[in-house]
Specification:
Blueprint: H1 9-14, H2 33-42, H3 61-67, H4 110-142, H5 147-173, H6 179-203, H7 249-263, H8 269-276, H9 280-308, H10 338-356, H11 364-374, H12 379-385, H13 390-398, H14 401-431, H15 436-465, H16 469-485, E1 544-546, E2 551-552, E3 562-566, E4 569-573, E5 583-586, E6 592-595, E7 597-598, H17 609-625, H18 627-636, H19 643-659, H20 662-672, E8 674-677, E9 691-694, H21 696-724, H22 729-738, E10 756-758, E11 761-763
Antiparallel strand pairs: 1-2, 1-7, 3-4, 4-7, 5-6, 8-9, 10-11
Helix pairs in contact: 2-9, 2-15, 4-5, 4-9, 4-10, 4-14, 4-15, 5-7, 5-20, 6-7, 6-10, 9-15, 14-15, 14-18, 14-19, 14-20, 14-21, 15-17, 16-17, 16-18, 16-21, 20-21
């Protein structure tokens, strides 16, 4: 769910012109809010620091109209009088290799580029921030993974994008490089990553967690019998799932790494390619549409992913009704892999039209000449001539206390957003005893509108109130205080369902938690006199809910001797460990059946679910409300010629200190709350196995501690950034002369006379870029 991603300095330098359309007097910061919201969930990179350069507001429309359509701002269509770079060259034609038919040339427009890039951005958000987050708890159960391992998988995207961003933006941004080909191959790699992510489903064989074989009390004295095989475990030398399922973690990690590599060009080279082929006034419009469409990706991922989890994982070969399974069963595993197959195939199809575009559309040369003539013409030369001065520039930035503390605030916010994006569905699923599909829908309901709305609100307030750098940091402090207040949602912890042998004793569960906590099955906590002679297998976790409201490890552990199947439900009778009297249930044929347990999760009586959803929504809202103002303050407190470098440094800090370690830290703490671990079969690594029962109280405490400490750190860093910020004397004099409060920026220095200096660091008049995640 998600601080948004910072753009790399190198990439920002290559896309310096992407937002010069901001000189449109009708443009407001609200127009760029979708960009930040998309970054919050899709984690694209905001690379365009030139939006904060001083812009010549003089009318240049005459020059623009010579090379573009006055209505759309696009270059003229093929065959028009104006010819762009390479129009006479075959490379400027749409097509693949030598196949460049005339029929395709009508699609050489910025609108079609935008169309296909919007699809690519949507797919990236749907897979990385939708499907992956939704299926975390499902693949843990299916492949015996611990949360620390699944956290590493979730962090693989950030690791790969961090490693690839600089080389991709450098190589793809060189003169003569074809950005559409880089984008197309990136989408291909992303599609391959999705297919790799789905590969363990086909390589691991059928799901063994639930079978149609009876799992009731057999009154045997030797559990292993003559064969020595443990029921529920593969026989020695049988192959199949005798392999270690948790080793598939490395396949999942590889898929996530490929996702990160493939997505790295989308919000760097994609942004620059759009900007290079439209007028400066239309650039912000096109980019706004691009980022807005990217918001649809995570929303679609949560909704579609949640619905797919209602389908049984092996639905092709197994009818879940025959086993009496429903999505409410504890051993249910949904079809997590379908979404990745669909996304992988669609990405491979999307790559073809992207790679068909030429390196530059017709009229692009005239557009670039026009834009360069209105920008600081020697800025590129200065950037390359000062490479040797990198150490001095780095010392200058690190010696800027406001910039330093804003970076730390971004890292602490990034840690919280990335961590909760990965594990909030798991938290809701366990706290409120919900199915994975319903938990996914609730998380989508919280994060998508809260992220988009908060980002829009933050940008709007900065623009509406006309805040100076000091005022912007105060706004960040206010938003962080409000966000910290709403972290009280984690106080709403639901009590654990009573689980015999784990947090409740056998035979008299209503007496409370008289049994010691169990960290594994081998300790014998699940054994009781009522199931002593049943020969229950520790490898068959098939929990049932007794009519006494207590969960049992399996029908066998509940001492049940009879089993019956009703539609999609299994019922059990003659359960020696269930103390409540039997109940009756009507059959479809009109008869009645007596039962004492069912293979569903006991209903939770916790009344806090919707209160939690509301409070979590406002926590997210105020968290994202600080993202755009935080980036605006970052760009205002550094020199004009250091903004690209400053963004790169901040992006590195946010990734290294925040988004990369976040899922691993959250996963480790969640593992610490486990009360009952899956017992590995003989010959397997004892450290393998997923958690079967969590301590809800401890999980809520750990999440509350993480949220509170993270917010407290953000608040401290934002406060120190404001405390150490010293406005330049020129700004103080201008404010005093105008008689305006210090929180309002005055137009006393016209945009055409140069940037306003703040604390010795040049700051822009306008802000609008989203903060990184």
């Amino acid at each position: 769910m998600v601080v948004t991603a910072l753009g790399v300095g190198e990439a920002a330098a290559m896309s310096r012109r992407a937002a010069q359309g901001l000189d449109n007097p009708g443009f407001t910061v609200g127009d760029e809010a979708p960009a930040a919201a998309a970054e919050a969930f899709g984690r694209p990179f905001a690379l365009d620091d030139s939006q904060y350069d001083e812009i010549d507001l003089t009318d240049k429309s005459g020059g623009d109209s010579a090379a573009t359509s006055p209505d759309t701002g696009e270059p003229p269509p093929p065959g028009a009088a104006s010819k762009g770079a390479g129009d006479a060259d075959g490379d400027a034609r749409c097509g693949w290799c030598l196949f460049r038919p005339g029929l395709l040339q009508r699609f050489r427009t910025a609108k079609w580029v935008l169309f296909w890039l919007c699809w690519a951005g949507t797919m990236q958000g749907m897979v990385v921030n939708g499907f992956v987050n939704v299926v975390i708890s499902t693949i843990e159960r299916r492949f015996a993974l611990r949360s620390t391992q699944s956290g590493l998988v979730a962090g693989g995207y950030d690791i790969a994008s961090f490693a690839c961003m600089v080389p991709v933006t450098y190589l793809g941004g060189r003169p003569g490089a074809s950005k559409p080909r880089w984008l197309g191959w990136g989408v291909v790699v992303m599609g391959i990553g999705s297919l790799v992510f789905a590969l363990p489903h086909f390589a691991s064989g059928p799901y063994r967690g639930a079978t149609s074989a009876p799992n009731v009390c057999h009154n045997v004295t030797d559990l292993y019998g003559e064969t020595g095989a443990v029921p529920g475990c593969p026989a020695a030398g049988a192959g199949g799932e005798a392999e270690h399922l948790s080793r598939y973690m490395w396949v999942f990690l590889l898929g996530q790494l490929l996702h990160g590599v493939g997505a790295s060009p989308l919000y760097t080279l994609g942004v620059t390619f759009i900007d290079e082929n439209v007028t400066k006034k239309m650039s912000s419009v096109y980019l706004g549409i691009y980022y807005t469409m990217a918001i649809i990706g995570p929303a679609a991922g949560y909704v579609l992913g949640g619905e797919l989890l209602k389908v049984y994982v092996d639905f092709v070969t197994v009818d879940s009704a025959d086993m009496g399974l429903t999505p409410n069963s504890n051993v249910w595993v949904g079809a997590w892999w379908i979404g990745f197959l669909f996304a992988g195939a669609l990405c491979l199809l999307l790559a073809a039209p992207l790679m068909a575009f030429p390196p530059a559309l017709p009229g692009a040369a005239e557009l670039q000449a026009q834009k360069v003539s209105e920008a600081h013409g020697d800025s590129r030369a200065q950037a390359f001539s000062k490479v040797r001065e990198l150490p001095r520039a780095l010392r200058s930035l690190l010696g800027n206390p406001t910039f330093f503390f804003l970076n730390l605030a971004g890292a602490s916010e990034g840690l919280l957003i990335a961590g909760f994006a990965a594990f909030l569905p798991k938290l809701i699923e366990n706290q409120f005893s919900l199915s994975a599909s319903r938990a996914a829908l609730l998380v989508g309901l919280i994060t998508v509108p809260a992220g988009g709305g908060g980002t829009f609100l933050g940008g709007y307030l900065v623009k509406r109130l006309g805040l100076t750098c000091s005022g912007i940091i105060k706004l960040c402090v206010t938003a962080t205080v409000l966000g910290a207040a709403f972290t009280s949602c984690f106080f709403l912890s639901c009590p654990n369902l009573q689980f015999a042998g784990v947090n409740a004793p056998y035979g008299n569960a209503s007496a409370g938690g008289g049994a010691p906590a169990a960290t594994g099955i081998g300790g014998g906590a699940l054994d009781a006199p009522c199931n002593a002679g049943c020969g229950c297998s520790p490898a068959r976790f098939d929990p049932v809910c007794g009519v006494d409201g207590v969960m049992y490890y399996s029908p066998c552990h509940a001492g049940c001797a009879r089993e019956a199947t009703l539609a999609d439900l299994k019922v059990f009778d003659e359960c020696a460990c269930v103390t409540a009297p039997p109940r009756e249930m009507s059959r479809e044929d009109g008869g009645d059946v007596i039962f004492q347990a069912t293979n569903e999760t006991c209903a939770s009586k916790c009344p806090y679910m919707w209160a939690f959803v509301v409070l979590a929504f406002f926590t997210m809202l105020f968290t994202f409300m600080a993202t755009m103002p935080a980036l605006s303050a970052t760009l205002r407190c550094v020199q004009d010629d250091q903004r690209s470098f400053a963004l790169g440094i901040q992006w590195i800090k946010v990734r290294l200190l925040g988004t990369i370690p976040a899922p691993i830290v959250f996963g480790k703490l969640i593992d610490e709350t486990c009360r009952l671990w899956q017992e590995p079969c003989p010959g397997f690594d004892p450290s393998e196995g997923a958690c079967l029962v969590y301590n809800n109280d401890f999980m809520a405490r750990y999440m509350l501690a993480l949220a509170f400490i993270g917010k407290a750190a953000s608040l401290l860093f934002f406060f120190l950034a404001w405390w150490f910020y010293i406005p330049p004397s020129s700004l103080r004099e201008a404010l005093a002369t105008a008689g305006t409060p210090s929180s309002v920026e005055t137009p006393s220095v016209p945009p055409t006379t140069g940037p306003v200096l703040m604390n010795g660091h040049a700051g822009p008049h306008d802000d609008g870029l989203p903060v990184p995640a």
